[in-house]
Amino acid sequence: xxxxxxxxxxxxxxxxxxxxxxxxxxxxxxxxxxxxxxxxxxxxxxxxxxxxxxxxxxxxxxxxxxxxxxxxxxxxxxxxxxxxxxxxxxxxxxxxxxxxxxxxxxxxxxxxxxxxxxxxxxxxxxxxxxxxxxxxxxxxxxxxxxxxxxxxxxxxxxxxxxxxxxxxxxxxxxxxxxxxxxxxxxxxxxxxxxxxxxxxxxxxxxxxxxxxxxxxxxxxxxxxxxxxxxxxxxxxxxxxxxxxxxxxxxxxxxxxxxxxxxxxxxxxxxxxxxxxxxxxxxxxxxxxxxxxxxxxxxxxxxxxxxxxxxxxxxxxxxxxxxxxxxxxxxxxxxxxxxxxxxxxxxxxxxxxxxxxxxxxxxxxxxxxxxxxxxxxxxxxxxxxxxxxxxxxxxxxxxxxxxxxxxxxxxxxxxxxxxxxxxxxxxxxxxxxxxxxxxxxxxxxxxxxxxxxxxxxxxxxxxxxxxxxxxxxxxxxxxxxxxxxxxxxxxxxxxxxxxxxxxxxxxxxxxxxxxxxxxxxxxxxxxxxxxxxxxxxxxxxxxxxxxxxxxxxxxxxxxxxxxxxxxxxxxxxxxxxxxxxxxxxxxxxxxxxxxxxxxxxxxxxxxxxxxxxxxxxxxxxxxxxxxxxxxxxxxxxxxxxxxxxxxxxxxxxxxxxxxxxxxxxxxxxxxxxxxxxxxxxxxxxxxxxxxxxxxxxxxxxxxxxxxxxxxxxxxxxxxxxxxxxxxxxxxxxxxxxxxxxxxxxxxxxxxxxxxxxxxxxxxxxxxxxxxxxxxxxxxxxxxxxxxxxxxxxxxxxxxxxxxxxxxxxxxxxxxxxxxxxxxxxxxxxxxxxxxxxxxxxxxxxxxxxxxxxxxxxxxxxxxxxxxxxxxxxxxxxxxxxxxx
Length: 883
Hints:
By secondary structure, the chain is of the alpha+beta class. It is built from 25 helices and 24 strands. It has 5 domains: 7-68, no CATH class; 70-129 and 348-482, no CATH class; 147-329, no CATH class; 484-525 and 749-883, no CATH class; 542-734, no CATH class. Strand 4 (178-180) and strand 5 form a beta hairpin. Mean pLDDT is 85; it is low at 61-74 and 474-488.
């Protein structure tokens, strides 16, 4: 065993101590170390470090290599800094009110900014977790109006095989399978059907097993799947032997060929738990060019620019459309980088909230700086005495900077705690379909940003008195002789108040616009009655449901069982739920309105429903009639009900009843329109596309194994939910029941993003308003206190209380009015970026602007009243004697 002391401690001490002392100190420590070795090397090493640190502290002299780094007292810089921090700590401890208020205000601003940055960074700023993500693009077909459209499989194949600028391409299709076996009951999963190149294109290798191969990607070949890591852990306990085994999916066997890495994050369909090979063939009916239900992701070659790929793909598109002129609405391709495309919906909200959080941080910093200025004014005699004793501007700056850094450090520590809790709450509130939501956490990047913000805040707070006092030697002006003070004395603090009020007004305007927009949105008639409505998704998979008739019979038995539950008025099924987050668009052709290009036929949402669906949803039938049970008979004529918007789109103002329409492919049956229903908002309350059609579910070309059961109740639907679920399970306990929601919850889910943005803006705006009011009050209260003698003289010379109040209010309301004017200009400039989040109102809505200006002006006036009251209570005799 070596008997040498810890080399790092020995070298540091030798560097630190003067040569005259180093030899003796190191020798004594070495002897002590040898004696301590009898108690163990660890004990000896710990004691050596402890004694070395004590020796360094006692000597406190810099090494010869740093002769110019001494402080004015001859101490090394580290000890000078330590002394300044200890002095600052003692000073702050003597002002607990100021210290606590400053730390809490700083914590609010730093916590909010850190939390929001923790959300925005992985979603919008950090590169996607794939190989060369800048080369990944989404490829869309172009509609006649230039908007994006999904693709048919044949189009994907043409572009992927004919392009020379794309390294590879893959098709993605939505899939919701039901899995059985493993741990737990049968459950429905969020899945995707993908081309075999999908994972290779992303640069992702399964952690266990392998990826898909080309030979498997054809219709009718072996059914293979890849599991997400979370599903593998949760359902199969991380069993590595799962690879090569078969699992039961949708009632049939599928082979597991791989398990994805734990850190794999699918941004195209967040929350995907399982992947199946696409298995399409261009000869299949569902793989046609007009079957536009697939998305295409591609990788541009590393030596090709985005513009070059865009130009080539558009050339290919024009050639393909020329070869198939009746199967495309227009020629052209839209090419969008994946990161921009997958964050398109959430980008405006997240950036707006990030700006709001930064505004709050600036307001918090300004408020703490204002408190620091006020405290510096109260310490003028202390500064004057220290100046008289020889303290220079540098020493003042070091002391104030140390105090500011300690305040900011306390606020930063509390802010990190606030951010940690806030991030957890935000993740729970954010919609589950936001990409990269799993990556949102308080990570090192967010902590680094918090540290930089804390440092900046500390410098601002510490040096604000120096920066605003003006002059090379400002502190004598704070001494005992500076008694009569005027407006110029408070210019710095007033300027900070102007900035606070301006930023607060911009936040309040944003809050007001979002609130009015949400209220306007919620006042929109969704087309159905959400009150006393319960919705849940049911599924029918497995050998028992291998025919369409078996599936439809299961739906009928479920409806009968649920209708028998006390409190249930009616229960019906539909393949889609308005505002439910799903879609099933189909082209509609009218027999009496033939088109040269069938691809230009209008599209509409398909609802395959049971007979009483419209009554259960309380969707009004404007013309004609509703479905009856007779319409579902095998021998009954094929009928349909169309939405009012679709009727106008196809026939203008002419009657729609009795017309013949065809939905889907060219071999679909013609159906007679027997009714026109009121429009429903399917994709959102702000939806402008309202086309839709209804058909009896037994008369569609196939049975949907996953449908939504809508239950109209005579009592609170939430209270009936357990009984409804039991009734469903009584028909077939093996089938999963999912997404149990009331009608109100369906509406709330559709507006979740707007609600969250409003909640955050409202919270930030409220805090900003309170801080601005505190700033106005603080400046005015400080001015009244410092001008007490002047106010006494004015009163003695005959100034009336009204005149004194007007003087005080002018001093307080002046910065507030300037801040309101500046904030209004800033709001008019910045709120246009909120346009994507607004509904029914303009970013320059005069009602919102007027209301917010009035509110903040009222708050500022209220903040002035207490200092004004104190001013008129000043007794001239007492004020003059005190001075």
